[in-house]
Each structure stands twice: as structure tokens, then as C-alpha cells.
Amino acid sequence: MSTIPEVAEYISVTRVVQITRICQLAPYVVMFYDHVLTFDQEVEHIWKSSRSLNTAVFVILRYSGSAVALLSVFAFLAQAHASNDLCRVFLLLQGWPICFITWLVQLILQMRLYVLYNNSKKILYLTGGAYIAEIVAMSTIVVIANVSTDAVNEPAPGLFICTNLNTPKIFYSFWLAPLVFELILCLLAIRIGIQRSKDHLGPALISGTRLVNVIVMGNVMYFVGVLLSCIVGAAMLKNLSSQWLEVPGGFALAVEVIAGCRLILHIRGAACEGLYNTTITSTRVGVQLQHSLPKSDLDEA
């Protein structure tokens, strides 16, 4: 006969399992919904545009990120016949796609900042050095967690879900490394935005000004999303048991994929709009000049 503490523990584990499954399914639904909302922009600015590095990055983010999220959903919802060894393999590999997608989006942000700072070598060395340090820190923490992994497929009788029973205490710092690096990128974006806002730009640079504003705001808004996901992830892993390990991961992946894709779409949309507005403005100026200039004797004849 089960005692009251055992029943309470079983109920607690059941609640964590249900929350984990919901938190793996919800981010994928959000990613799919965002894909539907932005699919017209994707067709216009990605598939109908010339192929470039941004095109390849967008495809990797959108479709590889969605595939990873969908695989996680199936893995956490259908595990009744998975062995402990299979769960261990899944948990060992699960963290790396999130890392790679995070690093890919951050590479985009660094390229944008590098252009905003007029190809400054100082900015390149600063962000590049911090980027490498972040990769080393995140990789080290993931490897430490993988070495100590104690995976089970049945944390409680009748409850089937891959669970790591031995998450290292320092694993919460996994979320601190990208948070620090994103803070550096955000401060650099705000700094260049303030500098550009003080410049007195003529009418011919209006489209360029809008392009700069889109880049700066994109970096700042992306940082806000990453900030929230990193704080929640670090706080949960710091204060809760290892059973909650898989809860914040899906949302972090969704933030990276959605924000990264929207960064590319916004910059391409702003560039196309700026080109269109510049053409219209030039045409109107030409017409106005044509009407305002005096007619020559040859024209009158």
C-alpha cells in the first residue's frame, strides 16, 4: 500500500510530465502559426528574390528549426516503447540543435552590426571574441551535462517520458552564456542607433535611415525575447529539480527560430521598400524638374 508521501511524489511527477509535454507542443504550434502569418513575406522576399547567404540561413532556420521542434514533440508524446538507452541517446543529442540555431542567429546579428559600424575591425574583434567564448562555454556545459546523464524512460510507474535524473547543478549557467553575449550585441545596437539618430541626414538618405532603424530595432527586440527565455530557463534550472529540465527548451528554440526568420524578412522587406520609395521619389523629382525648367526656343518651335 502506498504511503501519503509516495502518492504526493507520484502526483508531482505526473504534473511535471504533463507540463513538459504541453511546453514541448506549445512552441511548435506557435512556430507553425508564425510560419503561416509570414509565408507571404517568405514567398516575396525569399523564394522570388535572388539566392544569397540570407536565403540559405532562412531556410535552415525555418525548416530545420521546425523539424527539430516537431521531432521533440513526437519524442515527448510517444515514448511508451522507448528504452533507457534510446532515451539517453535522445537526451545527449537534444541540446545541440538549439545551440547551433542560437549560434546561427547570433552570426546574423554580428553581420548586421558589422555593417552598421562601417566594417569596423574593433567591432569585429569584440563580437567575434565574445562569440567564440560563448560557444566554448555553452559546449562545455552541454558536454558536462551529457557525461553525467542518467536517462530513464519511466520516472514513475506508468509514466513514460525521457527524463534525466542527474542534471549537474551548473547547468543553469547554460542560459547565462547567450544572455551575456546578447547583452553585448544589444548595447552595441543601441549605441549605433543613438549615434545615427543624431546625424543630420538629407532627403536622399531617408530610405537608408529606415534600413538602419529596422536593423537596430530588430537587434533590440530580438534581445528582449532572448532575455526572457534565458532568465526563465536559468531560474527554473537553478531553483527546481532536474525533472523540469525539458520545460524551457522548446520556448527558447521557438524564440530563436521566429526571431531569426523575422530579422531576415524585415531587413529584406525594408531594403525592397527603400528601393521602391527611392525610385518613386526620383521619378517625381524628375517630373517636377521637367515642369519647372524653362522651355528652350527649340522646344517652343
UniProtKB/TrEMBL annotation:
Segments forming domain DUF6533: 23-65
InterPro entries: DUF6533 (IPR045340)
Alphabetic keyword roster: Membrane, Transmembrane, Transmembrane helix
Ribonucleoprotein in keyword set: no
Organism domain of life: Eukaryota
Annotated transmembrane regions: 56-77, 89-111, 123-145, 170-190, 211-235, 247-265
Name of the protein: DUF6533 domain-containing protein
Organism (species): Hydnomerulius pinastri MD-312
